[in-house]
Amino acid sequence: MSTDFQQARVALGERLRELRESRPGGRLTGTELAQQLGWQQSKVSKLETGRQTASAEDLKAWAEATGQPDLTEELLSRLRGMESHVRSWRRQLASGHRPVQENLNALHAQSSEICVWENAMVVGMLQTADYARHVFTRYADLQQSPKDTEDAVRARLRRQEYLYDGTKQYRLIIWEAALHALVCPPSVLAAQLDRLAGVVGLDTVEFGIVPLSASLKIPPANGFWIYDERLVIVEDWHAELWLDDADTVATYRRTWATLRESAVYGSDAHGVISRARRALNSTTA
Question: What pLDDT digit, counting tens, does each position of 44-58 carry?
Answer without folding.
Answer: 999 999 998 888 899
